[in-house]
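To the team - magnesium ion complex, inputs and output below.
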Amino acid sequence: MTKREKAILVNLELSQGASNDGDISMEELCLLTETAGGEVVGMIRQKSGKMDSAYLIGKGKAQELKAAREEMDADLVIFNQELSPTQIRNLENLVGGKIIDRTALILDIFAQRALSREGRLQVELAQLRYLLPRLTGRGAYLSRLGGGIGTRGPGETQLEIDRRRIKHKINILSKEIKQLKKHRKLHRESRKEKGFSTVALVGYTNAGKSSLLNALTGAQVFTEDKLFATLDPTVRALNNTEGKKVLLIDTVGFIRNLPRQLVDAFSATLEETRETDLLLHVVDFSRSDFRELIASVEETLQKMEIINRPRIFVFNKIDLLTAAELQICRKKIEQEYNPAIFVSAETGKNILSLHEMILEALAGNLVRLTLFIPYHKWPSFSYLYRQGKVLKVRYCGEYTVADVEISEHYAKKLLPFTQEKVNKGIITTHEQDDKPSP
Ligand SMILES: Nc1nc2c(ncn2[C@@H]2O[C@H](COP(=O)(O)OP(=O)(O)OP(=O)(O)O)[C@@H](O)[C@H]2O)c(=O)[nH]1
Ligand SMILES: [Mg+2]
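Output:
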């Protein structure tokens, strides 16, 4: 067995955010390090008003880091922030050992875990894109990519050759991935033709997406209490669907500040998600920072232009909460994240209800309704934009009047906001074609 590399983690805390922001993100960096096979032997944090251009952290702190590294006999230092090539070089000179940043760490995990040809291609592309601006003529990476380059820095000419080679490889990989995209597209089209509906599980890494896939389909997909257990999309059929053909797709998990090289590289697999009929946004409800994680997943989805897909927020791991805890926050969350369901993939709690909810959401005959919603309540109906189509909005006295197209499932719930007000003659039309302010 190879020896676990000893790592010291470093975080520069610049933000004025909540006081435990730093703790949470260091905890995550710790988990990432362990997932990559490392052992955390120390942590250094610096609160500072600014970034140091030479060392990221101040020079004094960097010297402290050098002492800690020597004392702990650490093999590498991992920075929570992205480092510039100059900062890496300066830190290597001052501190010694291997210096990497969070992005390189995540890329390393992906490289270890990618199993399929497609996954490997995507990771390699991401790694090369990360490496290209960081080629400095020295460093360990080169020996693998440049083919037998020595440990000491090659001259400028060699560096140019390396750059050209890498650019050439990036080109080839991009073309191969383009081909894969085409292939996946054909595959998706054929599924559609055969009448399959598709549902994608998306969410933060370790939220329990694969566990839910297993709970819903009886599959045995690999799950693990580590980050990025899943890299390749896995597709399983949902059973007991009253004759409907429904496929569930498990996807790679997201993480805060997902390296953009990975977002780009994984666009081929994530493209699956863009055209699904329904998204299950899976949330680890046992985490105190679940709201921020939801926001960061939604932000990534937006970056990948996966918006406007109907979605259900699936709050998982409720077995880790007491019934009282759940009761307290449930109502509020249902208002904030609509529609929401609270489940446990581990104990099976509410999995049947989720199954039903999926089928209802897919029972997609769209119904056209005119809704009369009290003005102050309108912001909590913003889900209409996600779950259906809002065709027209007007303001009539104390009501927001919206023409919407939505699935039967939601239409049933919205009935109280349709006829009744009209019958009472409350509405006098006074049109204004505008979107509501949130
Ligand atoms: N207590 C509890 N643990 C759960 C539940 N669902 C999943 N887990 C655990 O959470 C960990 C992560 O589960 P996965 O299903 O691998 O999560 P994932 O979202 O697929 O993770 P990645 O593929 O890494 O993004 C595993 O250790 C699971 O056993 C749950 O309902 N309750
Ligand atoms: Mg998984």
